[in-house]
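Sat 14:20. Reprocessing the chain from the morning session after the first attempt stalled halfway. Input below, unchanged.
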Amino acid sequence: MILFAWPWVFLALPLPWLLRRVLRGRAERTPAVRVPFGDRLTAAAARGPATRRAARHLPTLVAEFAVWTLLLTALARPQRLGEPVSRVVPTRDLLLLVDLSASMTEEDFADSDDPSQRVDRLTAVKAVAGDFLERREGDRVGLVVFGNAPFLQAPFSTDLAMVRALLDEAQVGMAGPKTAFGDAIGLGIHLFEDSDTPAKTIVAMTDGNDTASRVPPVEAARVAADRDIRVHTIAIGDPSAAGEQPLDEAALRDVAIAAGGTYSFAADTASLEAVYAELDRVETREVVRESRRPRRELYAWPLVLALLASLARRAFERAVRGGNAPVDAGTTIRIDPVRGTPRVESIERVTDASEREGAA
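Finished this time. Tokens:
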């Protein structure tokens, strides 16, 4: 489909005709000789080159009108509309915080494909969280992993497959053996500073207590709440386990309450899937699609045609003028002084007659 960006330019189409009418040359009175054979003189002159010039004037006007029309067409900016292109407009920024401390190697989760097999906690998180990501169409999702310190694994993106691939590449211990949960929330708050989406959510998963943060998790959660960031916490593993990093459910619950989120506990794969299903229900998805049709400018084509038409007009005029030059130069009108009868003669004939009169 072709349309014009500035169709009002065509209002200037009659402008040359109007200027010709308004700025018409002023008529001048010149002395004239009145003769009784004026009508016959006019008829004789009509058979000369003036008639041929009038006949040549029509193609010139047509060519000039075509050039003017093509120039106006180029000024109106003709454009070709392409096929509609749509994209999903993000309505939520969702950040996953995944614990990679040493305790995530505990094999106390059932395999989602074979429940009789046991897998480590991180493998279960990857499987369930990955399925959760694939259902978040319309969201921008980011990934932060933490151990001794938090690290950005994937920036906010609508490419959910890419985020899941980076989640699958995460390995236990790559961020250190400890748990800097509070610092991970702090990094998430920093990542949301450039976000302009209406909803901002953090989903944090950990199986231990905070042992390496410079900022307590609850304090970080309060800062998140002040910036309209909701934090959901998921505790995984065995709450009765003891050791260097026992599960601190009270701290995770306090973080969720302080940031307006929810606290959940997942002891196995089934309960982890239920937690993510509940998060999917609470954090509803709103898919907004934006469609546009690309436009391709076509003004160059009428410009090229106008140039060709102008060159053709000049070539035509030059050819016609050159072919008629001998006729114009060799034609004259003689008037019989006795009878007053005009006749058109060539210069050669007039010259021969003059020579004979001189010889006589």
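Residues 2-21+33-81+296-359 form one domain.
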